[in-house]
Design a protein that fits this description.
heterodimer; A: mainly alpha; B: alpha+beta; 2,3-Dihydroxybiphenyl 1,2-Dioxygenase, domain 1; 2 domains; 35% strand
Chain lengths: 111, 338
């Protein structure tokens, strides 16, 4: 009888391994998220907690984050490809865009 | 041990397969537990195990999360680099729903899949966000956050470029039925973001209504390098804006629309880490910050005039997830920053 149980256990162990492999192959068991609090198995992988560090304040005079409204408000000296920046600067001939202004029901598009 | 009691039917069926039972004990004798009738018992075991394995895995596979599309009805629009969706992870989805419903008038539809509690948020019937329940990781110093999803055409191609440019993969590209294909990264400075190739197309380029997401800014330790990184990913145009001394302010644009700003992390905040901050359009920032506090949230940056002539503020929900409030008046009248 013990041998029979051992046989069943062997089958179950093999089944468990196959089950895990199947789940892994189907992408259901997700890789760990590198310390960002991502799910490391089973759940929705985009759910995460960030490390503490949303330390606000220090937004002194002149610290601005919003887009411009309306037309071109390009600062002097900006633009061109010879600025030595890490990014490709937009040519000075391009006017600075704003966010979409068209309403959902229609209307004009302005940049 | 009580042993396994087999019914006569079960025994009969088993014996038909060539396995015989001891008449006295009901055991299968070791020496004759499997009588060969032309079949290899090992193969039978393997086949049985495979069937059992697949049967075990089926519920897990069936529980894969399925999320609704971000655009209903489907649009034919595609706007690479545009913020098209946001998701909040929170330890108490009921409290979060109450907070955001009270603040912006969002309504919610609960979705349960794959062991995950998910609530889709709507404003006037349009999807505006997703809320995901997840317990705060024990013994870890973490806080909830809004995750920003940027539109892309090919998630796997973006992954390749992002990793080449120093990003870290946090969540491998995967397809979510109805939603699309998405992936999550940390950029080279550590700010977390997601990309999504939406199955139903991208939301149209229209002015956000009050209560909808209107803007996003990256607050980072190295605006130039970050701007270059996202330019490589999304083919942004980069514009330089006037900024206070020692700081940089860049504007990222695509399709001739401003999509995001990049700002230097204030120097006097050594514990702050680079991150994306999303802004909801409001009609009155001062009134809304008071409402945030009344609903159990906090004000992180008091309302202040910004360059567009309206006020901005940064607040946090009851669990500390930060987001911005941004006035965008319908009229052209504007105040001048002091």
């Amino acid at each position: 009888m013990n041998i029979l149980i051992l046989r069943w256990l062997r089958w179950l162990a093999l089944a468990f391994v196959l089950c895990t492999l199947t789940a892994l192959l189907s992408g259901c068991i997700l890789p760990p998220g590198g310390g960002y609090g991502y799910d490391d198995g089973g759940g929705y992988g985009a759910a995460y907690y960030e490390p503490f560090g949303f330390d606000y304040g220090g937004w002194g005079h002149g610290y601005q984050v919003a887009p411009f409204r309306g037309g071109d408000h390009r600062s002097t000296g900006g633009g061109g490809h010879a600025s030595g920046r890490a990014y490709r600067s937009t040519p000075a001939s391009h006017s600075m865009p704003s966010i979409p202004s068209r309403s959902r029901s229609g209307g004009s598009r302005s940049h | 041990m009580a042993g396994i009691k087999f019914t006569s039917n079960f025994v009969g069926n088993i014996e038909k397969q060539g396995i015989t039972f001891d008449d006295k004990t009901g055991d299968i004798p070791i020496s004759r537990s499997f009588k060969h009738k032309g079949n290899n018992p090992f193969l039978r075991q393997v086949l049985f195990a495979i069937l059992l394995g697949v049967a075990c895995a089926m519920p897990v596979m069936a529980a894969q999360i399925q999320l609704p599309a971000i655009v209903e009805p489907a649009s034919q629009e595609h706007h690479v680099g545009k913020l098209i969706f946001v998701e909040l992870v929170t330890p108490d989805i009921a409290v979060a729903k109450k907070f955001y419903a009270g603040l912006f008038g969002w309504t919610f539809r609960d979705i349960q899949a794959g062991g995950t509690k998910y609530a889709e948020a709507f404003l006037d019937g349009r999807p505006v966000a997703g809320l995901i329940h997840k317990d705060v990781p024990a013994s870890e110093h973490r806080q909830p956050a809004w995750l920003s999803f940027f539109a892309v055409g090919d998630v796997d191609a973006v992954k390749k470029v992002a990793l080449q440019k120093g990003a870290k993969m946090l969540f491998e590209p995967h397809t979510i039925p109805d939603r699309g294909r998405e992936a999550v990264f940390a950029d080279p400075q550590g700010a977390v973001f997601a990309v999504l190739a939406s199955s139903n197309g991208d939301p149209p380029d229209v002015l956000a209504a009050p209560g909808e997401w209107i803007w996003i800014s990256l607050i980072t330790s190295d605006p130039e390098t970050n701007a270059a990184f996202y330019q490589t990913l999304f083919d942004y145009e980069v514009f330089e804006l006037p900024a206070s001394e020692g700081a940089q302010h860049l504007l990222l644009a695509s399709d001739n629309y401003a999509r995001a700003s990049v700002n230097t992390l204030p120097a006097n905040r050594p514990n702050a880490h680079p991150h994306w901050l999303n802004y909801v359009r409001v009609e009155d920032t001062v009134k809304m910050t008071a409402k945030v506090v009344a609903l159990g949230g906090r004000v992180l940056v008091e309302p202040r005039i910004d360059r567009h002539g309206g006020k901005v503020a940064v607040v946090a929900d009851p669990f500390g997830a930060p987001f911005g409030l941004l006035e965008w008046p319908d009229t052209e009248s504007k105040e001048v920053p002091k």
